[in-house]
UniProtKB/TrEMBL annotation:
Protein name per its UniProtKB record: Nocturnin
Alphabetical keyword list: Biological rhythms, Cytoplasm, Hydrolase, Magnesium, Metal-binding
Signal peptide extent: none
Gene3D superfamilies in alphabetical order: Endonuclease/exonuclease/phosphatase
Compartments, as annotated in UniProt: Cytoplasm
Entry keyword annotation includes Magnesium: yes
Length: 471
């Protein structure tokens, strides 16, 4: 079967519209994965398993029913039972990472897709829609993008893609036509955005079409994926939902091998919460160096600032334990593993949780501050929407990185108000109420092609290049 036919087959059979039709699901077989007390699995055979704390036996899991299927109500009830069981389980902190190399993932047996061909198919399917906002990659002025074979840059993409059930059923985007949210076309917009930038690491939030769309497609594009649903997803309260939403983390198998994975349920004020995080330690095949990547989605809505701060502190504690393990075979711990944390924090830079991350002992800096003239100011917005309650423009999404160990080679700029349009987000030309964030990072070296200005720069030191300069 040629690549064009493979792309069409995958999109037509695995990504059928959930409304008014059934969703074909491919059985998902587990590969080797890290299992230890307190760390849960994100899904096997199209199911969602709750984490297995110490002394708690794993119960039967419920299959995810497609939106529009005949079993949607029973699916919601079953997910509710799982969530209630999880709520009653004690919160267990992640134990030490165990090394593993799941180089053979059974899902790699899916036929490989040509990303260029798949992008063309997405663009053909979106011909009736206006073009997505144009965005430039921004580089430090006076330098040429550096791509050493021994230390190639790593492209990271962070994106809250908007859960389909929430977009159609709860979020009340009053200026967005319901037709613009139709999954049959919106999925192509999401895939086109991902395929345009071709990240090596992809961190997503509000994913409620993991098993029927993102997992098979991204696997066929050469990625390894991990998914962790919220214990009690608001999607389950929407009629004909497609199961719970959650966080997903993908990495390109040609660039990284997996050392270990932790699925975390975040705590706040000593209590388990509904928010989760995925943490993976990866080994860079080109450099042999380790990189720890985390994706999370903190509690939404105003009035929950203290809970978000507590969730952030809990995540930082776990990340400190994970990245400072060092060499298990040595009595002396090795240096801290470099860290990238992506997420929708649902918090403006003025909140405590932001200050907690920016002042952390982990030495984290926010990538998107580098777009500002002083290198210290976040963008004016990463989400802009109009609901029945009014218009909201906020900075909620971040990519954090260990600035002493990693450097930012370039990042994707933020669309202007005119490019976003008067009806804001989402819209016919953009699939989510949150903008994607993209950056290229690399491991710091003693001798490199980066400017000597260090991790903090300003807009006056940066040059914009067309979006066509892509990996």
């Amino acid at each position: 079967m040629n690549s064009a036919r493979r792309c069409s087959t995958l999109l037509n059979q695995l990504c059928v519209s959930p409304r008014g039709g059934s969703t074909t699901r491919r059985p998902f077989s587990p590969g080797p994965w890290c299992h230890r007390p307190g760390v849960g699995a994100g899904g096997l055979n199209g199911t969602v398993l709750r984490p297995k704390p110490s002394g708690i036996s794993t119960t039967a899991a419920a299959a995810v029913c497609p939106m529009g299927g005949n079993s949607s109500s029973s699916s919601s009830r079953l997910f509710g039972t799982l969530a209630q069981s999880l709520n009653s389980a004690p919160l267990v902190q992640p134990g030490p990472y165990t090394e593993e190399s799941p180089d053979h993932d059974p899902d790699q047996d899916l036929a490989a897709l040509d990303p260029d061909q798949l992008l063309r198919e997405c663009e053909e399917a979106l011909q009736r829609r206006p073009a997505r906002p144009h965005r430039d990659l921004v580089y430090p002025a006076g330098t040429v993008p550096c791509h050493h074979k021994r230390n190639p840059s790593i492209r990271v993409m962070q994106w809250n893609i908007l859960a389909q059930a929430l977009g159609e059923g709860k979020d009340e985007f009053i200026r967005c036509p319901l037709d613009a949210l139709n999954w049959q076309e919106r999925k192509y917009l999401i895939l086109a955005e991902i395929l345009t930038y071709r990240p090596d690491i992809l961190c997503l939030q509000e994913v409620d079409h993991y098993y029927d769309t993102f997992q098979p497609i991204m696997t066929s594009l050469g990625y390894h994926g991990s998914f962790l649903p919220k214990p009690w997803s608001p999607c389950l309260g929407v009629e004909q939902n497609n199961g719970p939403d959650g966080c997903a983390l993908f990495y390109r198998r040609s660039r990284f091998s997996l050392q270990a994975t932790a699925h975390l349920r975040l705590s706040g004020m000593m209590l388990p919460t509904n928010q989760v995080a995925i943490v993976q330690t990866l080994n860079c095949r080109a450099t042999g160096r380790q990189l720890c990547v985390a994706v999370t989605h903190l509690k939404a809505c105003s009035g929950w600032e203290r809970l978000r701060s507590a969730q952030g502190a809990d995540l930082l504690r776990s990340l400190r334990n994970i990245t400072s393990l060092g060499d298990f075979q040595s009595e002396v711990a090795s240096s801290t593993i470099p860290l990238v944390v992506c997420g929708d924090f649902n918090a403006e830079p003025s909140e405590d949780v932001y200050r907690c991350f920016s002042s952390s002992a982990l030495g984290l800096n926010s990538v998107y501050k580098l777009l500002s003239s002083d290198g210290q100011t976040e963008p004016a917005y990463t989400t802009w929407k109009i609901r029945a309650s009014g218009e909201s423009r906020s900075t909620l999404d971040y990519i954090w990185y260990t600035h002493d160990a990693l450097s930012v080679d370039c990042l994707l700029d933020i669309p202007t108000e005119e490019e976003i349009g008067p009806d804001r987000l989402p819209s016919y030309h953009y699939p989510s109420d949150h903008l994607s964030l993209v950056c290229d990072i690399s491991f710091r070296e003693d001798v490199s092609c980066h400017s000597s200005s260090g991790p903090i720069g300003g807009l006056s030191e940066w040059t914009a290049y067309p979006e066509t300069i892509m990996k």
